[in-house]
Design a protein that fits this description.
- The complex is a heterodimer of chains A (369) and B (113).
- Chain A is an all-alpha fold and 369 residues long.
- Helix content of chain A is 76%, strand content 0%.
- Chain A has three domains: 6-59; 66-222, no CATH class; 226-368.
- Chain A has helices spanning 6-18, 24-41, 48-56, 66-107, 112-138, 142-167, 172-195, 202-222, 226-255, 263-284, 295-301, 303-322, 349-368.
- Chain B contains five helices and three strands.
- With 113 residues, chain B is an alpha+beta fold.
- The two termini of chain B are 28 Å apart.
- The model of chain B has no long low-confidence stretch (mean pLDDT 87).
- The chains are: A mainly alpha (369), B alpha+beta (113).
C-alpha cells in the first residue's frame, strides 16, 4: 500500500480550496477521504495526479463545490425550519394575547392594556419580520422581493400606528399617514404594473388592487384630517375657557358672601383647582390648552397630581358628609373623575377638566342656597 | 441493485447516527466502507452527501469530534454526543415506523386496485 506524503497532501488541500471547498472541516474530511481511497487503490502504474483526478471525479456530478453548496443548503434549511417554527409560535402567542386583551378590555378587567401592547409588539417586531424573511427566501424574482419588503414595512407601521393610537402615544397619526402614502403611492403602483401584464395573474391583480384602494379609502375616512383635529382642539379650549370664566365669576360672587361658604367647600374647591392646574401643565407646558391625553394615567404617573387627586377625593367625602341633609348639594362620586373604580373615569383630559369645573361650580352653589 | 441517491438522502442522517451508536467513533471514509460492507454494496454513500450531513449533525450538537494527525493529514473521528444518543433512538424508531407505513401502503395498493 502506498502512503500519501505531505507534499501530495498539500497538493490535494490546495486543489480542493481552488475548486471551491471553503469550509475547513469539509475540506479536511475530503482530503483524508481521498488519501484513504488513493492508498487503497493507487498502483504504481499511474502517476499521482492522474490517479487523484480519477478519484476526485467520483465525488461530484458537475462541479466539486456541489459539496460546499450542499453543506450550506443543509445549514440554511435547518435555520429555515427553526424560523418557521418561531414565526408560527409568535403568531399564535400574539393572537392569543390580542384576543385576551380585547376580552379583558370589554369586561373592564385589569391587564387589557398589557396584553394588547404585548400582542401588537410581538406581531410587528417578531411575527411580521420573520414572515417577510421566510417569504423573501421563497421568492426568486427581485420585484416580488421588493413588494414583500414594502408590504411588510407598511404592515409593521400600521400595527405600530394602531398601538400608538390605543395608547395615546404621540406619532400615531403620522405613522398612519405614512402607511397610506406607502401603500397608495408605492406598493399599489408597483404591484399593479408588475402583475397586470401577465394574463395568468391579471384578474387577481385587479381584484387585489381594488381591495387595496377600498381599504385605503376606508382607512382615510376613519382618520381625522389635521384641520379637523385642530378645530376640535380649539372647540375644546373655547369650551374650557368659557366654563372657567363661569367658575371665576361664581367664585367672586361667593367670596362676596364669605360667611356662607363652609371650610369643607373651600377645601374641595382648592383641591380641584390644584388638580386642574396640574393637568393643564401636564398637557401643554403651562398653557391653557387641552391636549388629548389620558388624564387618569397622567395623574397616576405624576406625584403632585396624584396627591391633589387623593386630597380632592378625601375633601369631597368630608364635604358630602357635611351637607348630607341637603341632597341637592351632594357632589356625585360616580360617572366622573371621583369614581375610583370606574376605569374610564378620567380617560381624557378634557372630560376630566370638565368634571373638576363642575365640582367647583357645585360647591359654589352652596353660597346661592 | 444499488439504491438511488433520492432514496438514501432522506435516511442518511439516521444511517450515520445508527452506525456511530453501534461502532463508537468513526471517520468519514470508514463510514462509507462500513455501509458498503454491511449492505453488500447496495447502499453506497457518496462523499458529496456524507460530509455535508456530518457537518450539519456536528453543528446541531448531535456529534462530537476528535482529531488525529497522520503527518500533515487531519483525520476527524465522529461520535455521538449525549443529545445525539437520544436523537438516534428517535430517528431510528421514526424510520422504522416510516418503513412500516410504506410497507403497508405498497402492500395495500394492489388489493385496492
Amino acid at each position: 500500500m502506498i502512503s500519501i506524503n505531505d507534499e501530495q497532501f498539500d497538493f490535494i488541500l490546495n486543489d480542493l480550496s481552488a475548486q471551491g471547498i471553503d469550509t475547513e472541516s469539509v475540506r479536511m474530511n475530503l482530503a483524508d477521504h481521498i488519501c484513504c481511497i488513493l492508498e487503497q487503490e493507487w498502483s504504481n502504474d499511474t502517476d499521482f495526479k492522474t490517479q487523484y483526478q480519477a478519484v476526485l471525479r467520483r465525488f461530484y456530478r458537475k462541479h466539486l463545490n456541489e459539496i460546499e453548496e450542499e453543506t450550506h443548503h443543509l445549514l440554511t434549511n435547518k435555520n429555515y425550519y427553526v424560523m418557521k417554527k418561531f414565526m408560527i409560535i409568535s403568531g399564535i402567542v400574539a393572537s392569543v394575547l390580542l384576543t385576551l386583551g380585547v376580552t379583558l378590555k370589554y369586561l373592564h378587567f385589569p391587564g387589557a392594556a398589557v396584553c394588547i401592547t404585548l400582542g401588537t409588539v410581538i406581531t410587528s417586531l417578531l411575527f411580521l419580520p420573520l414572515f417577510a424573511t421566510l417569504k423573501l427566501r421563497e421568492q426568486s424574482k427581485i420585484k416580488t422581493k421588493i413588494l414583500v419588503i414594502i408590504g411588510t414595512l407598511a404592515s409593521i407601521l400600521l400595527t405600530l400606528a394602531i398601538l400608538f393610537k390605543i395608547q395615546h402615544w404621540p406619532g400615531a397619526n403620522a405613522m398612519g399617514g405614512l402607511v397610506f402614502v406607502i401603500v397608495a403611492f408605492v406598493y399599489l403602483p408597483l404591484y399593479f404594473f408588475s402583475y397586470f401584464r401577465d394574463p395568468e395573474t391579471r384578474v387577481n391583480t385587479i381584484i387585489t388592487s381594488i381591495i387595496i384602494v377600498l381599504s385605503c379609502g376606508l382607512f382615510m375616512s376613519l382618520t381625522l384630517t389635521p384641520s379637523t383635529e385642530r378645530y376640535l382642539q380649539e372647540r375644546k379650549n373655547a369650551s374650557f375657557q368659557l366654563t372657567e370664566q363661569l367658575v371665576q365669576n361664581e367664585l367672586k360672587f361667593a367670596q362676596s358672601k364669605q360667611d356662607v361658604i363652609t371650610d369643607n367647600a373651600k377645601l374641595v374647591f382648592n383641591a380641584a383647582e390644584i388638580l386642574k392646574k396640574q393637568l393643564v401643565e401636564l398637557g401643554k407646558g403651562g398653557q391653557l390648552l387641552i391636549e388629548d391625553f389620558q388624564a387618569y394615567d397622567a395623574i397616576m404617573n405624576h406625584k403632585a397630581a396624584n396627591e391633589a387627586w387623593t386630597a380632592l377625593i378625601k375633601n369631597v367625602l368630608a364635604y358630602n358628609q357635611s351637607v348630607g341633609e341637603k341632597p341637592e348639594l351632594v357632589i356625585p362620586t360616580t360617572l366622573n373623575i371621583l369614581a375610583k373604580n370606574e376605569p374610564h373615569a378620567g380617560s381624557k383630559a378634557f372630560e376630566t377638566l370638565n368634571d373638576l369645573q363642575q365640582i367647583q361650580l357645585k360647591v359654589l352653589q352652596q353660597s346661592i342656597k | 441493485m444499488i439504491y438511488s441517491s433520492e432514496l438514501i438522502k432522506g435516511t442518511l442522517k439516521t444511517i450515520v447516527l445508527k452506525l456511530l451508536e453501534d461502532n463508537g467513533r468513526m471517520y468519514g471514509y470508514e463510514i462509507t466502507q462500513k455501509v458498503k460492507d454491511l449492505t453488500g454494496d447496495r447502499i453506497q454513500i457518496t462523499e458529496g452527501a456524507l460530509y455535508p450531513t456530518l457537518h450539519v449533525l456536528e453543528e446541531d450538537g448531535l456529534l462530537v469530534t476528535d482529531v488525529e494527525y497522520i503527518g500533515k493529514r487531519v483525520r476527524k473521528y465522529y461520535r455521538l454526543s449525549n443529545e445525539g444518543k437520544a436523537k438516534t433512538n428517535e430517528k431510528v424508531s421514526e424510520l422504522r415506523d416510516f418503513i412500516g407505513t410504506i410497507q403497508f401502503l405498497l402492500d395495500l395498493k394492489p388489493q385496492n386496485s
